Amino acid sequence: MKWTIHALIVGSCLLATASFVSVAHAQSVDWQKVDETLGRKPAVSDDVHRYGFPRTDLSVTLDGVAITPALALGGWVAFKPAHGGAMVMGDLVLLETEINPVMAKMIASGLEITAVHNHLLRASPTTFYMHIAGHGDPVKLASAIHDALAESKTPLTVAAPASPPPAVDLDTAKLDQIIGVKGQANGGVYQFNVKRRDPITQDGMPLTPVGPMGVAIGINFQPTGGGKAAITGDFVLTGDEVNPVILALRAHGIEVTALHSHMLDEQPRLFFMHFWANDDAVKLAEGLRAALDKTASAKS
Predict the structure, then answer these.
(1) What is the pLDDT at residue 161?
(2) Sheet holding 201-202, edge to edge
(3) Are 37 and 142 in contact (CB under 8 A)?
(4) What digits encode the pLDDT tens for the residues 149-199?
(5) Which of 62, 120, 237, 281 has CB 3.0 to 4.6 Å from 229, enough for a Cys bridge?
(6) Does residue 154 sit within a domain?
(7) How far from chain centre, in Å, is Cα 12?
(8) Rounded to whole angstroms, how far apart are CA atoms 224 and 172?
(9) Are 190 and 180 in contact (CB under 8 A)?
(10) How far apart are CA 189 and CA 200, in angstroms?
(11) Can you spell out the DSSP letters for 96-112?
């Protein structure tokens, strides 16, 4: 027991030290140059700068539902100061024909490809998701990502929205109550980020904040009329949670559409489970809550 407590104290000290070093490095990064290189402003959370690359150029439908970028087409890259430079992680939305040209550019620039896979089933056109990672000078990383994305039709300039996003026509207070955390409207979609209780690290660095770094459970509701919603997102799971969550989702009429890794050497080892349904939003939220209850996730 004494050794367990000692290990927890040492682990906490190491994470605290890593966080302090990360904050110090954040102050020395020329974020304006990173912004200019990527051609957009980031969402900033603590020391993480996250840049969105939504596929606003695509018209994707699934089971008759027009998929909005915020529901399932929101590519992103996140920079976190680390080890004298920055670590970058990302999830890029690509068409099948774009995968190899983008991958070739990434590899030539020294970036790592950590996963390529589907998130959805039956979508037209079919979209794939390329997860990337790297470490080094943040401006050089940003330039490499920009040049790789130029091999696709991903919009590299940010256009002003033609109109404000539609209101989220759902009982969001009820959804908050069921899911157990406060959601947020984004581009006509109601989104949840549910944290895991266990700390997640990569290369000795804590992947925090977990939402911007892509290691929180993501749940998205897009209204489809009459109190219904299309839902998708991904559960972030340890191996022993995978099949209990599958059973819980399927028992509530929620389709499991993918199960895979996103990273290569995170601790603990994580698996990402994507899902889909279009039904009464409250009913689906209850199904998602049943699945969340099978995980070591936080509930506020």
Answers:
(1) 74
(2) 205-206, 201-202, 266-267
(3) yes
(4) 999 999 999 987 778 888 899 999 999 999 999 999 999 999 999 999 999
(5) 281
(6) no
(7) 25
(8) 14
(9) no
(10) 27
(11) GGGHHHHHHHHHHTTPE
Question: Does residue 7 sit in the same domain as residue 142?
Answer: yes
Q: How many Å apart are CA 5 and CA 65, to the nearest integer?
A: 51
Q: Where are the beta strands (DSSP E) in 37-84?
A: 43-45, 48-54, 60-62, 65-67, 74-82
Contacts for 54 with CB less than 8 Å, ≥ 6 apart: 69, 70, 73, 74, 75, 93, 155, 187
Rounded percentage of the chain residues whose pLDDT exceeds 90: 84
Give which of 134, 270, 251, 130 is closest to 203, Cα–Cα: 134
Determine the structural domain holding residue 87 and report its residue range.
Answer: 2-149
Q: Which residues contact 6 (CB under 8 A, 6 or more apart)?
A: none
Q: Is the domain of 114 the same as that of 252?
A: no
Q: For residue 157, what is the DSSP state?
A: S
Segments in the chain forming alpha helices (H)? 2-26, 31-38, 69-72, 99-108, 138-149, 172-179, 242-251, 281-292
Tokens 């027991």, residue?
A: 1
For residue 299, being part of any structural domain is answered with no
Residue 166 covered by a domain: no
Number of domains in the chain: 2
Q: Are residues 85 and 52 in the same domain?
A: yes
Give dist(CA 262, CA 132) in Å, integer.
9
Alpha-carbon distance of 129 to 57, in angstroms, equals 16
Q: Which of 149, 181, 198 is the last residue of a domain?
A: 149
Residue among 235, 196, 208, 207 nearest 219 (CA): 235
Q: Give me the residue label for tokens 């690290």.
A: 201
As a whole number of angstroms, the distance between CA 44 and CA 52 comes to 11
* Chosen domain end from 84, 115, 149: 149
Taking the model in full, what pTM does it have? 0.89
Please give the structure tokens belonging to residue 118: 């589907």
